[in-house]
Amino acid sequence: MGGRKLSCAGRTLSASLLAGLLTLLGAPSAGRAEQFVLFDVTFTFTQANAVNATPSKSHFYVRSQMNPSRPKDWTAPIDYRNGTVHIRTDVIDKPAGSVATGWTLCYIPYKGIGSGYGCTGTGAYTEKGVFDRDVTMTSWWQNQDIVWSQGIQGMDLVLKDDKGVFSHLRPDPEHFFPTKMRITMIQVSAGAKYDPSKVPNIDPVVGGDGGAAPDGGASDVDMGTPEDAGATGSGGSGATGTGGAGTGEPTGSGGAIGTGGGSVSSGGSGGSASGSGGAGGPGISPGEPATGGCTVAARDRAPAALGLMAALGFVALVIIRRRRR
User: Which one, of 93, 142, 101, 151, lies nearest residue 119 by Cα?
Assistant: First the structure.
């Protein structure tokens, strides 16, 4: 029987609308900040701690204090690799003298490329206080030497002066030790903004956003890279040397990492995952003819329309509920 027909254009429009709403439903709502605390440690660092630190001096190692709920993959489903890191430096106690001091903060991955690690920093500070700064994850030294899809196993915190000289090599240790610190690093996803209200047990920001802050606040003075003061160690097969502790010291601060250091023959895991989702696309369903498949008889239109309306209503209801939360 000849009846009215639903055009291919109208059908495509309805399908596109449904697909768009479903995509919106699956994506994070606009303005929703995705972030997590990588670590939050409070510690006292003495000259003895710096001199006796192993495998590298002037290093404070963060391993067991890492957030156990940190993601394994920093690239998906949430992109932290291309986001920012918020660094909160709380200098609880520091020797008098206003000598510029700072910490190099090195990411130690489960798997690395090349040198197998990379470092950002707190910036230099001269007095006690709380200093906050945001750093883009693609801007700091050797950030590309980490396989981000494999995650981060620990952090190395390295105490230096504002020229990048390791604290244990300074001729005036009384200006560096002892010091009491609380350092917190918060990872923020790409496109999101750091939200301090989501970080437990912190006070409002004092100081600047990494710029020169009043009263000896943290600044963007280059704290140097880990190997500035001396040789970095190869660490042997599969080891990463995240920076020698001083002139002539060949050891690397990261110690051996099972699959991370040395050469990486594959060039970094995750490369073969490109094109994920590329096999999608509605195509033509098996029940449709190869030709003339863009029309549906009028008698078939009503059930399809009702089903589409029900799906749209459900999607709208879920979106409304999510936005109310």
Answer: 142
